[in-house]
Amino acid sequence: MRHGKHKYKLGVDPAHRKSMIRNLAVEIIDHGKIKTTQTRARALRGYVEKLVTLAKKDTVHNRRLAFKKLNNKAAVTKLFTEVAPKFIERNGGYTRIVKLADKRLGDASKMGYIAFVE
Q1: Are 87 and 56 in contact (CB under 8 A)?
Q2: Which of 15, 37, 44, 117 measures 20 to 30 Å from 99, CA to CA?
Q3: Cα–Cα distances in Å, from 5 out to 1, 2, 22, 28, 52?
Q4: CA 28 to chain CA mean position, Å
């Protein structure tokens, strides 16, 4: 049975999906807030929150694991030095998704912001 095995497919093949999620994660770490579709934001939430939890303990091993997930040295450095220290006392829920009323022109996709909580 496949109960509880749902993944966000995002309408692309697995390699493209992995690359898209990785790029969105790098962008949210760099900018703190990005505008994307609600489905992509929900797919990205778990990926980014696991990275923040990993970055709360600054060890060489954790940095290497984060680099393996992000493949961007500047993003890993910013994650460990600026983003994760803000969430030391927090036990989860590092991101929030804000839904926008306007849909995207062209395909009418539901849009929203995904951002780190303050």
Answers
A1: yes
A2: 15
A3: 9, 5, 21, 26, 23
A4: 6
Q: Give the separation between CA 105 and CA 6, rounded to whole angstroms.
A: 28
Kindly give, in sequence order, each residue whose CB lies less than 8 Å from that of residue 11, ignoring residues fewer than 6 positions away. none
Measuring CA to CA, which residue among 75, 70, 76, 84 is closest to residue 22?
70
- For 60-94, how does the pLDDT look when each residue is reduced to its tens digit (9 = 90+)? 999 999 999 999 999 999 999 999 999 999 999 99
| pTM of model > 0.70 | yes
List the domain boundaries for the chain: 33-116
Which residue, chain included where needed, has tokens 């990205």? 44
What is the layout of strands, in order, in the sheet containing 110-116? 33-37, 110-116, 95-103
